[in-house]
Protein: Lipoprotein
Amino acid sequence: MKKNIMLVMAVAAMLFASCGGSKTKSAAEATDSTATADSTEQIDTTALAPEIKSTLNALTAQATSAIEKKDPKQVTTALADLATTYKTLVNAGKLDEAKTYGAAIKKFVKDNEQTLKSVATNNTTIADLINNIENLPTTAATTADEAKKAVAQDVVNLASPYLQKGAAAAATAEAAAAVLKNAPAAAKAAIEAAPATAKAAAEQAANQAVNNAKTAAENKVNEEANKAASKANEAVTKAQNKAAEKVNKAASKANDAVNKAAGKALKGLGL
Structure:
C-alpha cells in the first residue's frame, strides 16, 4: 500500500513538472517571436521595377544624408521628394507599386524617427511632412484617387523641381513615367551637389553677416557724426545768439549815450 502511494505521488510530480515546463517554454517562445518580428520587420520590394527600386534607394540615401547633417532645409526637400514620388507613381499608373513604395518610405521614416523629431523641433513644415508620409494610404483597398489626394500640392511645391513635374495635377502618365526614369540620376546628382550647395550657402551667410556688420558700423558712425554735428550746430547757434545779445546790449548803451549827449547839447543851447 505504501509503495502504491509513493508511486502515485511520483507520477503526479512528473505530470506537474511537465505541464509547468510546457507553459514556461510557450511563453518564452511567444516573447522571442514578438521580438524577432519587431526587429526584423521588412518591406518586400521585390515586385518593384528596377528603376523604381533605384529611385527609392537614391531618395532614401538623399534623405539619410540630410538627416545625418540635421539640416532642416535639406531634410524638408528630402521628405517632400519621398512623398512627391509616391504621387508620381500613381500619376504614372503604377498604383500597386506606389503602395509598396509608400510602405517602404513609411518604414524609413519610422527607422529615423528619433533624429527626425530632433530636426523637426519648432519646425512645423518638417513635422507636417513626416505626418504626411506616415499617413500615406498603402492598403490593398486604396484607390488611385485616394492615393493622389494623399499628397497635397503644398507638399509637391517643397519637392525638387524635377519631381514636381511628375506629381502635377495635370501630369500625364507618360510625363510621370519620364520623371521616374530620370529620378535616380537626379537624386544622385543632388546628393553630390549637396556639399557644394552647403558651402555656397555658408559663404553667402558669412558674407551677409559681414555686410550686416559693416552696415551697422557705418550706421553707428553716421549716427555719432550726426550727433556731433548737431551738438556743434547747437554750440554755434548759442555762440551766435550770445554774440548778438552782446551786440544788442552795446548798441542799446551807445544809443543811450548818444541820447544823453544830445539832451545835454540841447540844454546848453537853451532849447
The two ends are 177 Å apart (CA to CA). Confidence is low (pLDDT under 50) at residues 15-39. DSSP finds ten helices and no strands in the chain. The first helix runs from residue 2 to 39.
